[in-house]
Automatic annotation (TrEMBL):
<dbReference type="Pfam" id="PF00278">
    <property type="entry name" value="Orn_DAP_Arg_deC"/>
</dbReference>
<dbReference type="InterPro" id="IPR022643">
    <property type="entry name" value="De-COase2_C"/>
</dbReference>
<protein>
    <submittedName>
        <fullName>Carboxynorspermidine decarboxylase</fullName>
    </submittedName>
</protein>
<dbReference type="InterPro" id="IPR005730">
    <property type="entry name" value="Nsp_de-COase"/>
</dbReference>
<dbReference type="InterPro" id="IPR029066">
    <property type="entry name" value="PLP-binding_barrel"/>
</dbReference>
<feature type="domain" description="Orn/DAP/Arg decarboxylase 2 C-terminal">
    <location>
        <begin position="179"/>
        <end position="362"/>
    </location>
</feature>
<keyword id="KW-0663">Pyridoxal phosphate</keyword>
<dbReference type="GO" id="GO:0008836">
    <property type="term" value="F:diaminopimelate decarboxylase activity"/>
</dbReference>
<keyword id="KW-0745">Spermidine biosynthesis</keyword>
<dbReference type="GO" id="GO:0008295">
    <property type="term" value="P:spermidine biosynthetic process"/>
</dbReference>
<feature type="binding site">
    <location>
        <position position="296"/>
    </location>
    <ligand>
        <name>substrate</name>
    </ligand>
</feature>
<dbReference type="GO" id="GO:0009089">
    <property type="term" value="P:lysine biosynthetic process via diaminopimelate"/>
</dbReference>
<dbReference type="InterPro" id="IPR009006">
    <property type="entry name" value="Ala_racemase/Decarboxylase_C"/>
</dbReference>
<keyword id="KW-0456">Lyase</keyword>
<keyword id="KW-0210">Decarboxylase</keyword>
<dbReference type="GO" id="GO:0045312">
    <property type="term" value="P:nor-spermidine biosynthetic process"/>
</dbReference>
Amino acid sequence: MTASDLSLPAVTPAASVDFAAIPSPAFVLDESRLRRNLALISQVQRESGAQIIVAFKGFSMWSAFPLLREYGITGATASSLNEALLAHEEMQGEVHVYAPAYSDEEFPRILELADHLVFNSFSQWQRFRPQVDAARAAGKTVHVGIRVNPEYAEVETDLYNPAGPFSRLGVTRREFRADLMDGVDGLHFHTLCEKDSDTLERTLEVLERNFGDVLRQVKWVNFGGGHLMTREGYDIVRLIRVVRAFREKWGVHVILEPGSAFGWQTGWLVSSVLDVVHNVKDAALLDISVSAHMPDVLEMPYRPRILGAGDPPEHDHREAVDAPPGHAYLIGGTTCLAGDVVGEYVFPAPLSVGDRVVFDDMIHYTMVKTTFFNGVKHPDIGILRLDGTYERVKTFGYQEFKAKLS
């Protein structure tokens, strides 16, 4: 069974959406698509026995949190004090916190908020243990974990590989301090990045080989994120089987904290053409910025899909009669950064000022990374509701831009 085999809610066809009626620019979450993902995630949670929480680093659109709670998602993982506050105030469930390092200034407040608190190193655990012990003595329930590095990963992009050579994330076996495990009741690892369940299964084999003696001592294990269970073709049956087997073998509570899986294919970035210029090639300038509004295009890097547009075929300046159909444009943003360009796309008709250009799959790991670079207009945030109405949830202006400066 895969995601495509499940009986999931129907989604609104993109072709039926009147993008011209949506104020540009805007990140638009499609409620029907989010519900489809949530239905699948909820089923995995029920059948696997794992607890699934949302990773704010990938999806933290808090206006959608009521929908997550509706499907039994009652917790979130935070990577900072600000995310922990958001989890406490808006998610209204368990707050799980992991950060590579905690500061003396912020840790007391993080400790107040956290239900699960994961340390990246034993030195951090030793540093902050007196505060944890004092909080527990005062009646605070907080589950403490150590992040481990299995030293195994199948991530192709170094920027996103938590278990790459000399990684600063997690404790390797040779650096592990079994003598400091008193007060620790869980382990955390994160080595996946938009991977299928076969990668998880191979990773668990390495984890068990390297940390089997530790697994016998703990009550819970957090498998981190990167479980792209909502992607078409993902092996859901294997995921459920692997999680169940691990739980039964080690007698532990299992936590999954995906980010992309929640927002995967749930919406668009709607933009408009501001100008078309020509310098050997035609270029369309949009009212968005690649570097400021979808930086993963440059960091990952990857090529986003544009609705209604295609890829230019590779050809070597053949005769005009052999030229590909359509109209090719370099698509770029409006910042002064020379490389603020997505790439070249072919459109069925010439682009004109005011035309909408809609980027697909722009909700997960996109809104969370936007900036106000160059002061360019920041896209709105909106929700396309089930009845077809568009709700403008947030608009940004000068005050938001100014608030980031001093």
